[in-house]
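I am still getting used to backbone structure tokens and would like to learn alongside you. Would you supply a protein for us yourself, any chain you care to pick? Start from the sequence, derive the backbone structure tokens from it, and show both lines together. Go ahead whenever you are ready, and we will take it from there.
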Amino acid sequence: MSIAQPPLIVILGPTASGKSELAIKLAKFFNGEIISADSRQVYKEMNIATNKIQDTKQIPHYLIDAVKPNQIFTAANFKQKAINIIKKIQKRGKIPFLVGGTGLYISAVADNLEIPQIPPDEKLRKKLEKDIEKYGVKKAYQKLLKLDPQAKNFVQEKNSRRIIRALEICLITGKKFSELRKRGKSLFNVLQIGIKIPRKTLYKKINQRVEKMIKDGLVDEVKNLAKKYPFALPSMSGIGYKQIGKYLKKEISLDDAIELIKRDTRRYVGKQMSWFKKHPSPEQIQQRECKKIKWIKKYPEARNIIKDFLSKAQ
């Protein structure tokens, strides 16, 4: 990789690991600005369940509150907007920090993924969703692998949302999802730092966060959103909104909804870590362009790694 490429620092990790706090401290120290790589914080009006940063005055944040909950926002949209923002930050002589836990968003920029810009087909998507409800996600995953065996490198077998999107692309285009989603030439000199946190500690933080969300008014937030937006929207299927939606529809009790939020957050954390652990991918190893994640526990470790990285990048 050429050292002439402008630097990009990625701060990643599972939900509730402390990414935002760490990134703000690092951005202050290194004169940086933050681009959110969170597929939920991108939506306006969705604040509590997404644990959205409210005070963005001390450090500029981008791609938070970018679109309305009823607007389509794909990984391809994110990539285009994020790259434009990163280049503007670099032109101002500052350091861009890409911060979040949405693996596809991070990879889209850091690995310059060539993501197919194919709009969702709502009719097909609903059919696939019904098939999963009826036959299970395992059968849908097997169907995807029959169409595209290499999809296993990009799509997790229990991630129904990603399976539906991959099937959608295969069926609409008649091409393999993996062939349409390849890495391009690196745009930046990327350093990826991940937060390592004991599972027991993480689960405790998740429970505390969910309890705080309820105290902060999550039920009212979802109630107000439901007046304007249907729960069928991708934005409304996020953790917190979906479960409280069931409570508001009198399908479950509030206590059950709270426990579901905790459980589903733990499951999502598992999916996040599976994504990060697959780094580097077989394709990257073959191309000898691995960008390994440097896992840290505390701020001083991250600061020292970044100092060393920036000194070599100049």
Remarks:
- The domain at 122-179 is CATH 1.10.20 (Histone, subunit A).
